[in-house]
Every structure is written in C-alpha cells, then in structure tokens.
Amino acid sequence: MRKSEFARAVEDEFGEAYGRVLIRDLVIQSLGDRTADQAIAQGESPRDVWLALCEAEGVPVSRRHGVGLPEPTS
User: Fold this and answer.
1) Burial level of 66, CB count in 10 A (0-12/13-18/19+)?
2) Helix (H) or strand (E) run with residue 54 in it
C-alpha cells in the first residue's frame, strides 16, 4: 500500500474531515503509542498503519483489505 492509497482508504472509510482527525490525533498503542501520521513519518509501512488504525477503530475485516486502490481505467 502506498501513502496515496492509505490516504484514499482513510477518506473512503472515515470521511475526509474525521479521517484527518484520526490520523493526526488518535494515538494507537500497537504503533508504539504514535499517531498514524507519526508512524508513517517515522518509516512504518502505510499498510501496517492502515491495519492498526482499522483495528483501533473496529473496522470489520471485510473492509480492511483491497481498499485505497484507484479505480481501474478502461
């Protein structure tokens, strides 16, 4: 997962405004008590951060995988 895919997944799942608040302010224990923004800035994989965010926010497993990918062009 790329950073752009992470951003798209966050917006799709949580909405633009709430998604920004989550990645900026929510401290996630499984990320070493860092926010998603901090973890990515410090080199964590966007995919690992996405999965940690989903776990922290109770996103069903069925909505965790394959999200954030751009729509295929015809």
Assistant:
1) exposed
2) helix 46-57
Residue-wise pLDDT tens digits, 1-32? 899 999 999 999 999 999 999 999 999 999 99
pTM of the predicted model, to two decimals? 0.86
As a three-state string, the secondary structure of the chain is: CCHHHHHHHHHHHHCHHHHHHHHHHCCEHHHCCECHHHHHHCCCCHHHHHHHHHHHHCCCHHHCCCCCCCCCCC
Q: Quote the distance between the C-alpha of residue 11 and its chain's center.
A: 9
SS3 of 39, please? Answer: helix
